[in-house]
Amino acid sequence: DFADYAETCFELFGDRVKYWLTVNEPNVQALTGYDLGLHAPGRCSAPFGNCRAGNSSTEPYIVVHHKILSHAEAVQRFRKFK
């Protein structure tokens, strides 16, 4: 999962990287992929787009929630690494 990936990056590149950024603009993927349906996975609901499936009222929030959880776990692993 993302925390394992982040931990591997800390171990391999920690001596060369001064600042770490886990998630850049977490809302963009949620909005374009799960609200507007413009990017993968292309999920949305009317009137936001012409997608086969999705719920623009709930899915973007679920995505951002899980991104925040993965960021928090990566931060915890970074603190143990330091």
UniProtKB/TrEMBL annotation:
The GO terms describing molecular function are: beta-glucosidase activity
A family per Pfam:
Glyco_hydro_1
* UniProt keyword annotation of Transcription regulation present: no
Keyword tRNA-binding recorded: no
Report the SUPFAM superfamilies cross-referenced here: (Trans)glycosidases
Keywords assigned by UniProt, alphabetized: Glycosidase, Hydrolase
| Entry's Gene Ontology BP terms | carbohydrate metabolic process
Stored InterPro entries: GH (IPR017853), Glyco_hydro_1 (IPR001360)
Q: Where is the signal peptide?
A: none
Q: Which family is this sequence assigned to? A: Belongs to the glycosyl hydrolase 1 family.
Q: Which PANTHER family match?
A: GLYCOSYL HYDROLASE (PTHR10353), LP05116P (PTHR10353:SF36)
**Under what name is this protein listed?**
Beta-glucosidase
